[in-house]
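Two proteins follow. First one:
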Amino acid sequence: MKIVSRNEELLRDALSCIPQPSTRTSLASCNKLIRFEDISAAAFKIQCGVQKTPCMYSRLSKQYGMDIYLKKEFLQYTGSVKERGVLYLLMSLPQEQQRKGVIVASDSNFSMAVAYHASELRVPVFVILSTRTAPGRVRMCREYGAMVISYGTTAKDSQLHARRLAQENGYLYLEEEDSAVYLSGLGTVGLEMYEQVPKLDAVIFPAGGHCGLLAGSAAALKHLNPHISVIGVESESFPVLQQSLKAGHPTDDQACNNHHFYGDVSGVCFGSNSLQLTGKLVDKVVAVREEDILISMLRLLEYERATVDAEGAIGLAALVAGKLPELKGKRVAVVICSGNLELHLLQQCIARALTLDNRVCRFSLVISDCPGDMSKLLEILAREEARVLDIKQERTFVTSELFTVEVICTVETRDKIHTAQLRNALLERYPRAAWTER
């Protein structure tokens, strides 16, 4: 959708008379018109507390036929763009509340940002986590300086306990929301990108339920240049934002998966402010498959040496999947907003991405259990320059002829063409070879 009037007027239409849900933090009273001046003020106030991350030209540009610039927000101290909104939120608290302290109850990027910046500002901070939280997240929150308390077996249990502690002790219970203060802090990303990359044609952001980054940055970018296309990307499995925009109000998608791979991408839509801003200022929202996100993570690791999670890779995934053909030949910035992927998930994601990218394949075939037959198979693999990752032999449960052995082999290839060449070479020698489909 095109911007046809002054940006402040659009923002005023978007945010006027929006009721704030009573389940959010007491900062809901701070909701008001988000103006470009608010974002500028946030940028000035937080400049000494967060990194002005680089927005660099990417080697992926030639591969996808456009000038791609990556805004590397995963380089923030806690590995997430959420630091911007959190720091401005904490700095905007009354001194009395800063003295009493704040409390959060989730293992999200938001909570880790609160843990770190509250400690830096000498604000007492408590993080309530369920007993099922990954040990790495618990350790990081403690190292950032928070008092971490394990309570309950579910996120709901820990949230109820946090609310009770807040009420009893005068702490401010913080939950990621879309107050003007928080959105203004996140909007500083758009402000920086506009300064760092001249003549931008489009900017791509992660979307999903927590679309505060998309909404706040869109407000900054559309004020500076209404002709810049602002695009949001979410998962096909959890099209929360698209559903909410269609319905005209935040929706709770019962299909949302809380698997840590998706992080905030799969969260429910948390506020009317962000939703209204997105509807007014964002030009397009697209959805991508999980496979595209994994390939995007692989591309960023190989070409940019960037280890990111699903939320960080989802913006580039729209280009990987070919969802935005209109951007060919254009100057495009992509926000890489988060790099907090647990180590055990990282290993699984890269292994799966290599398979999806046709660079790891598996086949099985039956050969005679005689000296020399295995070496002939290995000679073919060596000649075709395939790297053997794993090889197994099964003799006991082979159902074909006697004195044969089933060989199950996993190999690494260069690309899809190399895989096809290897397959043809093996089928020529072993017509009954079977390939495991990815």
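Second one, unrelated to the first:
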Amino acid sequence: GDARVRSQTGVLSERRGSYPFIDFRLLNNTTLSGEIGTRKKVKRLLSFQRYFHASRLLRGIVPQASLYLLDEDYLGQARHMLSKVGMWDFDIFLFDRLTNGNSLVTLLCHLFNVHGLIHHFQLDMVTLHRFLVMVQEDYHSQNPYHNAVHAADVTQAMHCYLREPKLANFLTPSDIMLGLLAAAAHDVDHPGVNQPFLIKTKHHLASLYQNVSVLENHHWRSTIGMLRESRLLAHLPKEVTQDIEQQLGSLILATDINRQNEFLIRLKSHLDNQDLRLEDAQDRHFMLQIALKCADICNPCRLWELSKQWSERVCEEFYRQGDLEQKFELEISPLCNQQKDTVPSIQIGFMTYIVEPLFERWAQFTGDTPLSANMLNHLRRNKAKWRSLLHKQHSSNRSNDHSGQVTGSQEQTLNEEETP
């Protein structure tokens, strides 16, 4: 079953990657000592291909989400959080703990119901649950950043954006389903390393996709594989499912950061010319792409307590890649050198050159709604906090560099600076 599904979707059958020398067990093993465990886990890390659990699914055995095994107190808190799922201060880390690591499955089941998608598309709840479990399990929990909690966070943000009046007034059920599915699956089976790493290590996915949007193509193809295997949309006409698959691809591929300028220039042109016609399916799809791009990089626009956690997680993932590159005497990628690339400096650059230009245009599109104003305010405050932390780091480094020691008075000053 697995091999047939893979060949049908154009996804590689389970084969080891073409790394000439890198042992990918090191990717998600920070201790770098001790054995990885089962043969299946080694095989997964070597090729980071997914395991479909097809035999279980074909026998009709539904994986049980741990949510339903939690005590009533946790369930009550999770339900209470879901009642406020449209609020921008939604704490996805807390929600993931309350659902025992099932934030993505629980959130999507709720949102599909809230938006009336189950009724509109006549979806089977058991099949929907199977599909969502497959998606959630296909994320690598070992990744500090690109994991199922990130996918849930992006999905919650996408839900907020889909409710913005400028967009919501024109969206069809198909648009909403595509937006939520793309958000949930946009980073599925992410290996925790970036495209340049895959290219320079001659990974088979880089070859398969000719070094273009390598990860995004893989996320899309994996999603199609899971959709077809779960048969979630099998009752719909073939032309409808084919259209859904292609549009999912267009949305997921838009998250490639290398295409940022392409989308920004196009959005700026539409806004300057005031020629967006959201009655037109093509224009609606473009704004769904923009919404997903915003959702994917919205961490700097969250509350500081949440934003800081995400910043530290993504930098930890960068540093792990840098450590791997150093170990195998490869050139360390930009932002991946822990000795030179600090979290504050990485975040300030990211906010300045990537996040701010996109969210300022998004606010222009939405018409400065409360949500857009709130996000931009968080963004500016968070950037100021990172600048303050960067200044403290520089002050600390200068003090330590002076004669190799810190004097008593300097130490007192530094301690005072660190006091909240």
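SUMMARY FIELD: The first helix runs from residue 2 to 9. The chain has one domain: 73-395.
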